[in-house]
Amino acid sequence: MQGNGDSDQVKAYMRLAEQRIGAAFVADGLYCHQCGAWQGPHTFTFALRLYEPRQANLSKALRLAGALEAAVGASPVRVYSDAGVIFAEIPSPWPVTVAGPQLRGLKLAVPLGLTPRKTIAGVDFATAPHLLAVGPTARGKSTAMRAVAFHLARQNPAGRVAIVALTFKPQDWLAIGNLVNGWAVVSDPPEAARALAWLRDKMTTRAKTGQSWPAIFAFVDDLANLLGAAPECGQPLLEMASMGRAAGVHLVIGTQRLGAKGAGDALIASNIPDRLIFGTASASDAAFYTGRAATGAEKLGAYIGDALLVSDGGAQRLAVGYVSDADLAGLRQSSATLRPWQGSALAQDPPQRGETDEKGGLSGGALVRVVRPAGLLNRPPTAEDAAALRALYAQLGSKNKVYEAAGVPKNALRAVWLAQALGGVNP
Known about the structure:
Layout: H1 7-27, E1 32-39, E2 43-50, H2 55-61, H3 65-72, E3 78-82, E4 85-91, E5 109-114, E6 120-124, E7 131-134, H4 141-155, E8 161-167, H5 174-177, E9 182-186, H6 189-209, E10 215-221, H7 223-229, H8 234-243, E11 249-255, H9 260-263, H10 266-270, E12 275-277, H11 283-290, E13 306-311, E14 314-320, H12 325-329, H13 383-396, H14 399-406, H15 413-422
Parallel strand pairs: 7-11, 7-12, 8-9, 8-10, 10-11
Antiparallel strand pairs: 1-2, 2-4, 3-4, 5-6, 5-14, 12-13, 13-14
Helix pairs in contact: 1-3, 6-8
């Protein structure tokens, strides 16, 4: 995408657009006061107050999108109202990609992107347990879901958050599966059905014992195709959508549309009020998907990642943050895979990869694959040794545990070599 544009060029464009928008309102008999404009990542937003804010005039203003598109020469234009103010959003000629890693959250509070006013918008899974991403193909659903997984992994140790990805596009999720928080990436529909059935049973057991951690997140990328290939997935998803919160079981679902063909039983969607809408085919679909009238969701989609976040607090537009495979590779990695639904000895209570206890140490039941570089004790570490040691540190979580795994006393010369190879990681 292009950059933000030259400052003088942007100001001139905004002044001209503001004049044309105001003229379009007046031409339709709506006299107004213009009260501000903002440049966002994907849009320019203009605020107006009607001098005669009668219901008939407000309704008339909300139908002006087509006239504004003709006036400013850009499409799509979204018009909506909030607290008596009319907002007109037009696509920016200078869109920018929001760098996901620059957004910050905390624990289960995950940033999703930037609003047109460049404030961070997100979702807190501690209070809103599930998220539903809805919209046509190639609009940014998978991008948003990957960003959610990235922030969950960056903000939480593996003992607090575990991730399972069920997808027909495994190439988009392999980097997620390599995270220390990632259990597995599942692309086989029968295995996906087994995984969801296991997770539903795990939820039931946890509910009886009061356990709610680690928080387990099931990412379902392309629900419609999954239900078409494995209809038996519908019932576990329905139960988790309605009862997962108390047991620390969370769903992040992507689908192209709602209704029986897109989200299975309507009860799945009805139990997930927090949604990311990436455009709809019509105003009626927009009302159905968002549960609100006049959101303008049908006017989204000028750029990939352009979405409407719908929650109990209302609806706000945002540009979804982008996370690359390189960004994901910068988080703690693990080569181990956990598939507790496969019926192994681990199936009843699978250990966590690098799971930490309350004091931050490695818990006794952790499953860690320790690989010590060959010949490490006989020479200073090479660059390859350093990479291997850093991967070992990512699995074990502390320098002392790396020393123990390598069989090196902390005060020995070789411990100095190890410290140099590990660089600036925390002790």
